[in-house]
Amino acid sequence: MLPSTGLIYRSRLPSAMDTLNAEQSAAVTHGTGETAADTRPLLIIAGAGSGKTHTLAHRVAHLIRHGADPQRLLLLTFSRRAAQEMAQRAGAVLQRALQLPPTQAPPGLPWAGTFHAIGARLLREYAPRLGLEPGFTIHDRGDAEDLMGLVRHETGLSATHKRFPQKGTCLGIYSRVVNTREPLAAVLASTYPWCAAWEAELKTLFGAYVEAKQAQNVLDYDDLLLFWAEMMAEPALAAEVGARFDHVLVDEYQDTNRLQAEIVRAMKPGGQGVTVVGDDAQSIYSFRGATVRNILDFPHQFSQSARIVTLERNYRSTQPVLQASNAVIAAARERHAKQLWTDRGAGRPVQLLLVPDDAGQARWIADDVLREREAGLRLKSQAVLFRTSSHSAALELELARRNIPFVKFGGLKFLEAAHVKDVLALLRFAENPRSRMAGFRAALLVPGIGQASATRLLDAMAEAADPVAALQAFVPPPQAQADWAAFAALYARLREPALAWPADMELARAWYQPQLERLHDDAAVRKLDVEQLARLATGFASRERFLTELTLDPPQSTSDESGAPHRDEDYLVLSTIHSAKGQEWRSVHVLNVVDGCIPSDMATGTTEEIEEERRLLYVAMTRARDRLTLVVPHRFYVTQQSGGGDRHMYAGRSRFIAESMLPHFEQLTWPAADAAAPLLAREAAGPVMSIRARARAAWR
Ligand SMILES: Nc1ncnc2c1ncn2[C@@H]1O[C@H](COP(=O)(O)OP(=O)(O)OP(=O)(O)O)[C@@H](O)[C@H]1O
């Protein structure tokens, strides 16, 4: 509370709130002032571009202005970036409302973060009461998969004569069971029917996986939610944690899963102080166990029914963009009723562009992007969105060829690069000597230490009461002696309590550099990544925070052949639709709006999957402010089709753009119909012969 400024606030109130429309204002002020007696939980159904972020930021600021203590305000977001943005926007509103001088920072939001990050924090704090060791490290998906692979091997399942599911599939099943709270058999039946015969073995595997995690004092992503939910199932602890927060606000509620909903309910069973914001029409994460039911069922999940405020006025898009998007989502099966409207002007029609193939698609987009730039639209205000990271390959080549700088979001595996994993493993091993995965990886980096020696080391450490002493006492093979001594010395330094972060990173880097040169021909390029990691490190207060935050919310973007653009340079944005969530651009192109890409041919099994793909297209379309083009290549190239290898596919316009919706689009063909006709006609006739079949037949 900021008591001395109450009067100023009241006089400033109109200008702080006058950017809100009536519904936004109702949501922002719910439970305060005239509605102070209304203790119902609040559900804000916010259509695309209707000011969800705007409203939530104002609500946070408003609550603080009305006496809420920022320390007692829990704000759960989908990504760390979203948490930072929310804190910054709420801060800006407060700054205005309180007329703070620019030099005086508004109060921060110490409890803003993702469910996973907040879970990790609470679990560390409550660890002693939960029978957990507070020094746990967190496995990212890659580590978790590796550990699952190891356990799969140790339990003898990799040697079964019929092919047992791969480690990635096993982890997927495990994760789904945890996040959806469904029994294994149900998950197998609904989502992994081809693995159903392995139910008993999978149970054994998952039991062993859980034991391995516990022995190593590591938690995976799912544990962060699971343990938090388990903690909240203990009424005394739930009451205690719930009482720490006067307000619990959840953003992007449509993409939460059962566990997350359970956590919120357990903290605030009466619903008082709970605000959730979301749009069922934008729910796109069911493959990670999210369930749109959370938002559909929210009104009746607390001891008092929720107040629902619906935001239907879209501030983002022009009339044609909104009409086309509305038409696409109107065909969805189940949703909270709302009809978005905008009073933004008529604007340019939405284009539905037919091109011969993905090379043509890339050429057209590159031309168009440059045309728009000539007309004054910066590259940064333009985005190209796609269903799957690999869909942008042809476009990336074309952009690089023409020297058009771009940044790609959503396809990056920065943390999965071997050299980045090496450095992180070293730091993780220093943080948690029980982490077998990290230890194994780190030990193998020492020249002369192979699998057998590494196993011997890790076994000795696992059995010892003091694993650090066991490492120092380890006798390496003779050829590794000198290098091992250097490694053991490094390890001892990394464990020194007085070492001040990020000195650890510098020590690790200095030791790793010669290993990098020894292990990789392209060490010079990889070194840049390690430097990038070191730069990132400086932004964190401690090694533990760095490892936790980086694991929970890895960096999302990369740039490709065109060279890394500097922050102040202009660049085109390429993004998967999933990573485009919550963002907006003046001009948006959506690639491959064809059946097989969207809906993806990997997701056409069930009605739910198809519905989610429809929402994905809707999310993509509603990112556009002024201009939207959906590109339909008649033929496109696909990579790594299971069993089929790389090949060309012929496809039709996505089923989500039904005949009846065509009046909402301007249909174009490129190259102009005359030029394209011979090509299209040739292709429409299909292949005359199959070269591949002939090649196979030659060996029969
Ligand atoms: N009351 C308002 N007056 C003027 N502009 C507004 C208002 N509310 C929101 N906007 C603007 O509308 C745009 C969309 O807002 P915001 O990003 O908060 O929407 P959103 O609901 O989070 O969108 P989505 O769910 O589609 O990602 C932004 O440019 C924002 O500044």
UniProtKB/TrEMBL annotation:
Give the enzyme's main class according to its UniProt record, as a single word: isomerase
Ordered alphabetically, the record's keywords are: ATP-binding, Helicase, Hydrolase, Isomerase, Nucleotide-binding
Q: Recorded E.C. number(s)?
A: 5.6.2.4
Q: Does the keyword Endoplasmic reticulum apply?
A: no
Molecular function per GO: helicase activity
Query: Which residues make up the binding site for ATP?
Result: 46-53
Q: Does the keyword Flavoprotein apply?
A: no
Enumerate the spans annotated as UvrD-like helicase C-terminal domain: 319-582
What reaction does this enzyme carry out catalytically? Couples ATP hydrolysis with the unwinding of duplex DNA by translocating in the 3'-5' direction; ATP + H2O = ADP + phosphate + H(+)
* UvrD-like helicase ATP-binding domain location: 25-318
Q: Which SUPFAM superfamilies match?
A: P-loop containing nucleoside triphosphate hydrolases (SSF52540)
**CDD domains listed in its UniProt record:** DEXQc_UvrD
Concerning its family, UniProt says: Belongs to the helicase family. UvrD subfamily.
Which named protein is this?
Answer: DNA 3'-5' helicase
Species per Swiss-Prot/TrEMBL record: Ramlibacter aquaticus
